[in-house]
């Protein structure tokens, strides 16, 4: 399996063959928060390591509904890395993505590896800060049923052990991600990521 190197695979920019591609990693993030810091660095490092990554470029989307290509990219990915930042929950797209990740994880052997970038897991539990405020706003705009699904997805991901990064400078000090090796997902992901840390990945 080959994966395009040095570029993302945005919604609406894929060919019919690439939309059916199996990805090793789906990277979910709020562009204005993290694009120029951890997201681009982590993405570039994984591409250099030969890992097939789908990086959703939210600025390139058309319309409000989550599209079939994006759903297929999530379904066909083995590992999900949502980067939760201050304004992640303000994006309906991001919330739709994480809710679908949780749904896929329940149906199949998918893995969610969250990064908490400048936020804490308690924010995802809607007890504090911008996440609770954002969900209250979404409830008025999108309705209680839809918002409840997003809230439940956030709370479920908050229970998963992830990496807490207070700022971009913390990347070099974060713990190893050797936990990926026992997952057994793909030779390239296993060989390049196991026993590395984010300092290695973000140089």
From TrEMBL:
Keywords: Hydrolase, NAD. GO terms for biological process: signal transduction. Its EC number is 3.2.2.6. Signal peptide: none annotated. Coiled coil: none annotated. It catalyses: NAD(+) + H2O = ADP-D-ribose + nicotinamide + H(+). One of its GO terms (molecular function) is NAD+ nucleosidase activity, cyclic ADP-ribose generating. Residues 21-168 form the TIR domain. This is ADP-ribosyl cyclase/cyclic ADP-ribose hydrolase.
């Amino acid at each position: 399996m080959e994966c395009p190197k040095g570029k993302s695979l945005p919604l609406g920019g894929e060919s019919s063959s690439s939309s059916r591609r199996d990805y090793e990693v789906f990277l979910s993030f709020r562009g204005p928060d993290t694009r120029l810091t951890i997201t681009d660095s982590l993405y570039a490092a994984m591409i250099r390591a030969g890992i097939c990554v789908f990086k959703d470029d939210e600025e390139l989307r058309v319309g409000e509904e989550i599209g079939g290509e994006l759903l297929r990219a999530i379904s066909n990915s083995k590992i999900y890395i949502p980067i939760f930042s201050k304004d992640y929950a303000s994006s309906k797209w991001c919330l739709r993505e994480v809710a679908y990740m949780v749904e896929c994880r329940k149906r199949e052997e998918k893995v969610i590896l969250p990064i908490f970038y400048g936020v804490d897991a308690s924010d995802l539990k809607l007890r504090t800060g911008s996440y609770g405020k954002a969900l209250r706003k979404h409830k008025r705009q999108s309705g209680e049923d839809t918002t409840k699904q997003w809230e439940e997805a956030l709370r479920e991901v908050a229970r998963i052990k992830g990496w807490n990064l207070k700022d971009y400078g913390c990347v070099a000090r974060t713990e190893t991600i050797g936990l990926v090796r026992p997952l057994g997902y793909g030779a390239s992901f296993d060989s390049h990521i196991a026993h590395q840390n984010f300092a290695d990945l973000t140089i």
